[in-house]
Design goal:
single chain, mainly alpha, 2 domains, about 0% strand, globular
Length: about 450
């Protein structure tokens, strides 16, 4: 019973990721059939921009999660004031974005009417606000509610959109307004829960965030560019025909990180940050964090590498390009799986507020990988693009691990015992893949 109680929060986080996966696998193709390729192309742009804006929140989610996780039981009112400050910052940001969007709509040809532009900005703001609330609840280790709320919110919002498209009209306007309404309700539900978890702030509270800096924005922009600009570069230099199999391969190769390792990070991050804030970082917690990453990223990554031809053939229903996609997946998944160990030092560096280092490292790696991508794509060599991104993930993990290992005695004491295990698991995964390839 005790073990079940410990695993229940992690299981609910996986349920939340399951909702996102179901939307991608089941509902988005349905939207495409209902709306047609023309309108759904605009939907794809809206959803991609939404994902990008969640990352570009001025670093509010990073700092809010770190500071709330470090608060003691008697300081929770200060956490309520921190969230209110984040809300005010977010409101100013999206008022400015709304003005820019309305001005741009007058000079740029767009399929969106003015009312649609207003609803799209409202959708973006509500999704980012809900994400901030979710980060705050995770920081206070409210795992079960976050996981179930994420599952219910994603399924209800997109189920409501599907019903509106089927019963009202399969138009872009109906899609946008139904999504905006669902996102607002989801954000309000998350905020209600946060108000229940955090007491009112003291009247004299001045909760200025401790390290909001330009470096946070630089880090977010660099990371988003690295993960989003490769497809446009491949399309621009190698052509649309080369982009489709590469895009499909990236989606499949990132699955172990997105849906399996992600909840593990959500579970352990506030615990690690909370212990660092009180100076009680325990090596057993760091060890469990690493082993959770190895189990959720390395083992599924190795399985995907081995089964890539069969998985892609099944996923793409035997389409002629499935063999090409499988080849790309095998290159990419090595890097994404090995790079997953970078989650551990990243959490430690965020707790130590090493934002300038993270921004510098992220910018250098992003410039390098995008330059190699443009060069390889101009030669029509998408395999080299895959190799570049595999190297990018591994290099990011190594750089952060070395930095955390050499930053201060406390982090060194926590990381040194697990470094041989991380290195051994990495070499073992590569060796296991080579053996499977040779003998099976």
């Amino acid at each position: 019973m005790t073990m079940l109680r410990r695993l229940w929060p992690l299981a609910t986080l996986y349920c939340g990721r399951l909702g996102t996966a179901l939307v991608g696998l089941l509902l988005l193709p349905w939207f495409n059939r209902l709306m047609g390729p023309g309108q759904f192309g605009v939907v794809a742009i809206i959803l991609s921009t939404q994902t990008l804006l969640v990352a570009l929140d001025l670093g509010l989610s990073i700092v809010l999660g770190r500071d709330l996780a470090g608060l003691g039981a008697g300081e929770l009112g200060l956490g309520r004031a921190m969230f209110a400050q984040a809300e005010r910052t977010l409101l100013r940001l999206y008022v400015a974005l709304l003005v820019l969007a309305l001005v741009a709509s007058r000079f740029v040809a767009s399929p969106l009417a003015v009312r649609d532009v207003l609803a799209v900005v409202l959708l973006f703001g509500a999704v980012v606000h809900q994400n901030l609330g979710q980060i705050a609840l995770l920081a206070r280790q409210d795992y079960a509610w976050v996981g179930l709320n994420q599952l219910a919110g994603v399924l209800l919002r997109n189920g409501f959109t599907l019903a509106c498209l089927s019963l009202v009209a399969p138009t872009l306007t109906v899609f946008i307004f139904s999504q905006a309404l669902g996102a607002c309700l989801h954000a309000l539900a998350t905020r209600w829960r946060l108000a229940r978890r955090l007491p009112p702030a003291p009247a004299q509270a001045h909760p200025a965030f401790r390290s909001v800096s330009f470096a946070l924005l630089v880090q977010a922009v660099a990371g988003a560019c690295a993960m989003q600009l490769d497809k446009p570069l491949v399309g621009a230099f190698a052509g649309a025909a080369a982009t489709a199999p590469y895009y499909l391969a990236t989606v499949l190769a990132l699955t172990p990180l997105t849906f399996l390792a992600g909840p593990v990070v959500q579970f352990f991050q506030p615990k690690v940050i909370g212990q660092i804030a009180t100076g009680t970082l325990a090596p057993p917690l760091v060890r469990r964090f690493l082993f959770g990453i190895l189990a959720s990223a390395f083992l599924p990554g190795l399985a995907l590498w081995f089964a890539a031809p069969a998985v892609t053939a099944l996923w793409l229903h035997g389409a002629g390009e499935h063999a090409l996609v499988a080849g790309y997946v095998r290159l990419l998944v090595v890097g994404t799986s090995l790079g997953a160990i970078g989650y551990l030092p990243n959490v430690l560096l965020v707790a130590r507020r090493q934002y300038a280092f993270l921004a510098t490292a992220s910018t250098c790696l992003t410039i390098t990988v995008l330059a190699v991508t443009a060069w390889a794509a101009s030669r029509g060599d998408v395999r080299t693009v895959c190799l570049a991104y595999a190297t990018y993930h591994v290099a990011a993990a190594v750089v952060q691990w070395v930095r955390a290992l050499t930053l201060d005695p406390e982090l060194r004491a926590a990381l040194s015992p697990v470094t041989p295990a991380a290195l051994g698991a990495s070499l073992g995964t590569v060796g296991g893949g080579l053996l499977l390839h040779r003998f099976l």
